[in-house]
C-alpha cells in the first residue's frame, strides 16, 4: 500500500502556493466554523505550515461572520485586506453545506473572497465541480467531448460511470425514471446537490422522498443507479470484550 500522508501533502501544497506569492507578509486565512469539531487536524496543518515556513507564515482563523466584519476588498487591485496585511491564501474549512451560510452576511463574505486575488483552497469552480449535479451532467451525451478529444480517453472515463438522471425536468423520460424509483427503490440512490457523499437516500427513503418532494426539492437531487459491490466474508475483532467468544465475529 502506498504511504498516505494527507497532512504533509496539504501543508506542502499550501506552502508552495504561499511562496509563489513572493510576499512573505501575506496571510493565510483559514475560514472555520464558530464551533469546530475538526480543530485537531486544523491545528496539525497550522503546525506543519509553521515548520515549513520557519515561523514566517501568519495564519489567522476567522468565521464567515468575522470575515464579513474584518475583511476589505481593494476595488482597484482586488487584493483582500485584513487590517494592513494582504490575504494571500484563503483555506476553507467550512462552507460546504447550506447551513454553513446561515445568512446573507456569510454569502457576501464568500463573494468578497472569491472576487479577490487571493488563492482559494478550494476555489468556487472546483467546489462546484465536486457536487452531484456536475457528476450527473458529465454523464450526458456530448459533454465529455467538450473536454476530451481522444476516443480512448473518452471510453476509459465513461467505463467508470454508472447511470445518472437529473430530476429538474417534467418530461416523460423523467417521470418514468421517478415512477420506477418509487416502485423499485432498491435499484437507486437519491443524492442531494451537495459536495461529498453525505445525505444520500436509499431503499424506502427514496420512495418516501420522491412521493413527497415539491418540484423545487426534487430538482435539487439526482438519481443514480445503485452500485452493488462484491460481498466478501471476513472477520472482525472487537477489543475490550470480556466474552472471548464474541471477539471473533463473522461480518459481510
TrEMBL record:
SUPFAM superfamilies: Glutathione synthetase ATP-binding domain-like (SSF56059). Pfam families: GSH_synth_ATP, GSH_synthase. One of its GO terms (molecular function) is ATP binding. Residues 27-129 form the Glutathione synthase substrate-binding domain. One of its GO terms (cellular component) is cytosol. It catalyses: gamma-L-glutamyl-L-cysteine + glycine + ATP = glutathione + ADP + phosphate + H(+). It comes from the Eukaryota. This is Glutathione synthetase. It comes from Meloidogyne enterolobii (Root-knot nematode worm).
